[in-house]
Amino acid sequence: MGSAAQSSTITIPPDLLPEDGRFGSGPSRVRPEAAAALAAEAENFLGTSHRKATVKDVVGRLREGVAELLSLPDGYEVVLGNGGTTGFWDAAVFGLIEARSQHLSFGAFSAKFAAAVAAAPHLEAPDVISTEPGSHPEAVADPSVDAYALTHNETSTGVCMGLRRPAPEGLVLVDATSAAGGLRFDPAETDVYYFAPQKCLAADGGLWLACCSPAAIERIERMAASDRWIPPSLDLGIALASSRKNETYNTPALATVFLAVHQVEWINGNGGLEWAASRCDQSADIMYSWADRTDYATPFVTDPARRSTVVATIDFDGVSADEVAAVLRVNGIIDVESYRALGRNQLRVALFPAIPPSDVAALCGCIDFVVEGLSP
Ligand SMILES: *Cc1c(COP(=O)(O)O)cnc(C)c1O
Predict the structure, then answer these.
(1) What's the burial of 75, exposed, middle or buried (CB within 10 Å: 0-12/13-18/19+)?
(2) Which of 190, 193, 188 is nearest to 208 (CA)?
(3) Which amino acid residue places its CA nearest to atom 4 of ligand 1?
(4) How far is the CA of 158 from the centre of ligand 1 (A)?
(5) CA 199 – ligand 1 centroid, Å
(6) Which one of 80, 155, 157 would you pick to mutate in the ligand 1 pocket, going by the greatest count of ligand atoms within 8 A of its CB?
(7) What is the pLDDT along the chain (376 residues), one digit of tens a residue?
(8) What's the burial of 372, exposed, middle or buried (CB within 10 Å: 0-12/13-18/19+)?
(9) Phi, psi of 105 (to 5 degrees)
(10) Which residue among 105, 109, 208, 234 is best mutated to probe the pocket of ligand 1, counting the most ligand atoms within 8 A of its Cβ?
């Protein structure tokens, strides 16, 4: 009780506060410039047909902008549809995995895709290679596997992994939901690099985007033409045909499409993925070096090579991270609570490109201020 009363009286001085208090890992900060641009275009754009040029042009800009942002090789195509990443997993269960997949499971999101596959009656039991949260397993070449499921950034734990083809055969499916647009990678090492736009792309949720290699497109077309039953809303063959017309199979959230284009073009206009990744590197450096020199804070991910530069997880010792998060929230700094199921005394902070490094530095100062105020 005492500490609750105490925390409610801690007021962070305005000059310590970040410009913007949103540090959540998804949905994450939408740049005010993007929201203003949407408001300015609202009467011409929102509430108009997604089968007409006004919206189709924006979808086309999104597909082209993503291909440019991620430097997709010739022959790769950007496919999109509704349902976010979770919807895409179900689509992959029907339209990308032929018989058996291998999954690297090292957090809540990678585990969920593995579970969706394991529950599918038309697929063989997947090979699931797990490690404890805080690191990641390595893929193992296996000729009986036709798809490898990797996760570029495990948002629940703040672990990132390098992307390499585990074997010459087998599609490489990469969940890049919190990575796309913030982490470097070689797209030639992937066949399907898929994500939703509410993280690094600083838009809203509900959409999935998938960058598909020629081999992935061949697989999609072959599975769509096979005698496997596929619900139409999860049929990647239909999604591919719609995307090629700059449409989605059914109505998308137009605001999401608009905000995603705005962010992609903002990054491309500033120097592309290298610029965005460098900005995230700078934020990560600020956050982790603060944790290293702070006696009550330690980076959760011990191997610096696996420590994410887009989502930082910081363990607390001798101080309740939940209490710190509660005080920050009262002061307008929100969504830095740890991923619940992980059950650690931890803060989780998004370092996405829309969040300026100066705000990450301000956040560290605010945490110090709060911890000092909470100390007896
Ligand atoms: C957020 C997230 C998801 C879930 O995305 P939805 O669009 O909400 O389905 C999946 N995987 C990762 C790595 C994520 O960060």
Answers:
(1) exposed
(2) 193
(3) 85
(4) 13
(5) 9
(6) 155
(7) 445 555 568 999 999 999 999 999 999 999 999 999 999 999 999 999 999 999 999 999 999 999 999 999 999 999 999 999 999 999 999 999 999 999 999 999 999 999 999 999 999 999 999 999 999 999 999 999 999 999 999 999 999 999 999 999 999 999 999 999 999 999 999 999 999 999 999 999 999 999 999 999 999 999 999 999 999 999 999 999 999 999 999 999 999 999 999 999 999 999 999 999 999 999 999 999 999 999 999 999 999 999 999 999 999 999 999 999 999 999 999 999 999 899 999 999 999 999 999 999 999 999 999 999 998 7
(8) exposed
(9) -110, 115
(10) 109
Burial of 261 (0-12, 13-18, 19+ CB in 10 A): buried
Residues 6+ apart with CB under 8 A from 70: 180, 181, 187, 193, 211, 273
Sheet holding 147-151, edge to edge: 77-82, 207-212, 192-195, 171-175, 147-151, 101-105, 127-130
Single pTM value for the model: 0.97
Which atom of ligand 1 approaches the CA of 87 most closely?
A: 9
Which of 86, 93, 154 to mutate for ligand 1's pocket (most ligand atoms within 8 Å of CB)? 86
| Residues in contact with ligand 1 (CB, 6 Å cut-off) | 26, 84-86, 109, 151, 155, 175, 177-178, 196, 199, 205
